[in-house]
């Protein structure tokens, strides 16, 4: 009898755990209106599909020589941000757009900024191909580097929980404590990085995580950090680690 | 090296075309649809107007729809029309032209069984 009871408790605990996990780990798609979701899932209506096409052409022309097929590098999408190993990025975090820009300049000799449409198109193409992979942030193996990496992670967590801006809000006050409630006309979703780059209707353009985070700073009326600053990369690393194990959803449509 | 096409276009036919019945044709045009009212990052200079002015959709070379777009249309416009499928099907084509003289076109076969 005792044994049965214990088994019941374990099973109950298991199901509670599952329910708990589902409830606390909803992607932004769960907060979209049915109309937006329909538009997002239909390539004939989703503007993102234009850049998927573009990215595919750019990939064929510029990247295929080294990376035989897109399948060989899609896992990078769910692993970034990583600790830079190249000459230009040694000792700092880089995200996928940084990596694409570095590759692109090696191949073509042109140094493009991360917000450039070519870089974003390639990022969107990779992101689209990486749908369904599990997010798995790569930790450096070298203990010395790992300590630096952990510092950046801590910095990201600190930024996430620190009040800032004229509204004096921290990320966590909305994106942990007020999930599902309204912020003006928006429903607050938890800050999981499961589907980037995004096409945001209010921007009428595509944007990376970098741009999305800068928009958050401006939303609470804080000083907006420069694009590609280490602060943004640290925050991105923390957010990606928070989404560890969730499924990648490809480029997304947002309001 | 391939460069980025700033004005991509995607023409889709929704569902299976059946002769005599209507089929939905959707077109997505990559275009900034800049109204000319916005200021640039420096806060002084206006971003020059750049708007698609005319869109013509043809079925087997015959114009079936003509539209004049203006500043009220969002960037990357999505247009959708219903076309009656002619016997033997046909080719649907779309052409757009903006106020800076740029043009784009796409075409697709409406294949009937």
Describe this entry's structure for a reader.
The complex is a heterodimer of chains A (255) and B (113). With 255 residues, chain A is mainly alpha-helical. In chain A, 49% of the residues lie in helices and 7% in strands. In chain A, β5 and β6 form a beta hairpin. By secondary structure, chain B is mostly beta strands. Helices cover 0% and strands 47% of the residues of chain B. The interface between A and B is medium-sized, with 22 and 20 residues.
- Count of separate structural domains of chain A: 1
Helix percent band of chain A: 40-55%
Report the order of strands and helices of chain A.
HHHHEEHHHHEEEEHHE
CATH superfamily of chain B: Immunoglobulins
The CATH architecture of chain A can be named as Orthogonal Bundle
Q: How far apart lie the N and C ends of chain A?
A: 55 Å
What is the helix/strand order of chain B? EEEEEEE
Identify the biggest protein-protein contact and residues per side: A-B, 22 and 20 residues
- What best-fitting shape of chain A do the alpha-carbon axes yield? globular
**CATH level-4 homologous superfamily of chain A:** Cytochrome c-like domain
CATH topology of chain B, what is it called? Immunoglobulin-like
> What class do helices, strands and sheet pairing of chain B give?
mainly beta
């Amino acid at each position: 009898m005792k044994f049965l009871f214990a088994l019941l408790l374990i099973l109950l605990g298991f199901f509670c755990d599952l329910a708990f996990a589902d409830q606390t780990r909803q992607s932004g798609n769960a907060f979209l209106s049915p109309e937006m979701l329909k538009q997002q899932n239909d390539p004939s209506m989703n503007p993102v599909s234009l850049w998927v096409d573009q990215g595919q052409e750019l990939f064929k022309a510029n990247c295929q020589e080294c990376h035989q097929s897109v399948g060989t590098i899609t896992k990078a999408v769910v692993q970034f941000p990583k600790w830079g190993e190249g000459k230009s990025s040694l000792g700092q975090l880089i995200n996928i757009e940084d990596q694409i820009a570095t590759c692109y300049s090696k191949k073509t000799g042109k140094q493009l900024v991360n917000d450039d449409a070519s870089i974003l198109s390639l990022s969107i193409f990779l992101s689209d191909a990486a749908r369904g992979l599990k997010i798995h942030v790569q930790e450096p193996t070298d203990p010395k580097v790992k300590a630096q990496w952990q510092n950046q992670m801590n910095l990201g967590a600190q930024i996430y929980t620190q009040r800032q801006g004229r509204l004096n809000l921290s990320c966590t006050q909305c994106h942990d404590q007020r999930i599902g409630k309204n912020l003006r006309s928006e429903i607050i979703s938890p800050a999981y990085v499961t589907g980037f780059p995004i096409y945001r209707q209010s921007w009428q353009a595509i944007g990376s995580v970098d741009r999305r985070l800068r928009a958050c700073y401006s939303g609470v009326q804080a000083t907006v950090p420069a694009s590609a600053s280490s602060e943004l990369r640290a925050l991105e690393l923390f957010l990606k680690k928070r989404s560890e194990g969730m499924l990648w959803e490809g480029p997304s449509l947002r309001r | 090296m391939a460069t980025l096409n700033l004005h991509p276009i995607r023409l889709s036919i929704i569902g299976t075309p059946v002769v005599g019945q209507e089929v939905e044709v959707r077109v997505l045009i990559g275009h900034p649809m800049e109204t000319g009212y916005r200021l640039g990052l420096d806060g002084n200079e206006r971003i020059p107007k750049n708007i698609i002015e005319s869109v013509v959709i043809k079925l087997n070379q015959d114009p079936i729809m003509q539209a004049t777009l203006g500043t009220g249309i969002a960037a990357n416009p999505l247009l959708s029309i219903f076309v009656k499928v002619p016997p033997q099907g046909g080719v649907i084509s779309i052409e757009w032209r903006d106020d800076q003289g740029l043009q784009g076109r796409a075409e697709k076969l409406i294949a009937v069984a």
